[in-house]
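Protein Entry — a single chain follows
Next Lines — sequence and tokenised fold
***
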Amino acid sequence: MLVIAKKQGFSDLASFRESLKTNPKYMATSSEQIVDDFRKYIAQMQPRLGELFTVLPKIPVTVEPIPAYQPGQATHYQQGTPDGLRPGRVSVQTSDAAHRSLIDDEAVAYHEGVPGHHMQISVAQQLSGLPTFRLHTFNSGYIEGWGLYAEQLGKEIGFYQDPVSDYGRLSSELFRAVRLVVDTGIHSQGWTRDQVVDFFRKSGAVDEPTLQAETDRYIAWPAQALSYKLGQLKFRELRDRARKALGPKFDIRTFHDEMLSGGVLPLDLLDARTDRWIQSQLASRRATGE
């Protein structure tokens, strides 16, 4: 983040963050602008999915604003129906738009849309040979870990062209790290709401409307926020493990297909499944003399 700030002509993060708060290019002017931003990033990712997967979702995805009567809801994904008659939906929080920053829209669009939640959930709905509940089950470590992992995939295929958008991606990473502290603070160390808000503000990770809503979320849903980072680290670990074992034969597309083709799994079962897949890949190569 500091490297980006210096390239933009600032000596430290604090002055760069302050400039972003008043830079009209990165502050929303309307709820429609925020929704359009998400649509733009999801649209640019769609034709590039073939570089990351061989199995693609058949269910379309749309973007819509969260209704005004739900100002406390965070941006989220709502799954469509397997027949595609109801598309998957990225529901974007646009309340208090004048105080919302646009810098992390790209990262959140990849997280909630493609190659994140829409990709993972829609592929799960297409799987055959699994009990029905396995096509629709929920596990935060897996689902949110995948969403956070998906944010970096945009970087790997050449997006985040605007340095400030890339700064937003890193701010998203910082946000997920900060909440490891505040969630634990609330539920283990007896932190007050004011302590959480103060820690959030000093981190500079998110804007004021977001940190207020997120603080209430952590109070109401203990440890769920921790699962994002734990899951992301597991997906990264499994990818590194597979790349090291398979060497030049490692294919990121088939690895990602394997991550999604078993449905939602607890992370320990995903780990064991990945080990079996690696061994099957190695055995296949030995059998063919590769």
